[in-house]
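Protocol step 4 of 6.
Sequence for Acyl-CoA hydrolase (Idiomarina aquatica) entered exactly as in the expression construct, tag removed. Do not edit the line below.
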Amino acid sequence: MRFLSRRLVMPNDLNFAGSLFGGRILEWIDEEAYIFASCQLEAKSLVTKHIGAITFETSAFQGDVVEFGLQVKKAGRSSLTITCVVRNKHTKQNICVADDIVFVHIDPDTRQPTPHGKTEAELDDSNYEID
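Step 5 output, structure tokens:
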């Protein structure tokens, strides 16, 4: 798993206890996973269908840099399943793991699932690499 995207935890990302709000991290995971999936499939017409098990392991605090590791778990005919690990950039401790994030490729006009045309073998993490 490659960790390529990072975010700085800002004051407006915190909950009442002063740690990173769980809802904010889920928002970031959905956004980062969408970007990763759309780069893998070279398509924009994707929707989040499912986010499976989410495990919060440790907290993040204001000023922490968190990074997102993403990898393809499975490619279906019209879907792509991804795993995302969020960790503290400096300590390397996992903050959160979101498994089985499923995106479905849809026809932009009919909004119905449509084949994305990629096989698992064709997918490559370098499609997401930051230049």
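Step 6, annotate. The first strand starts at residue 2 and ends at 8.
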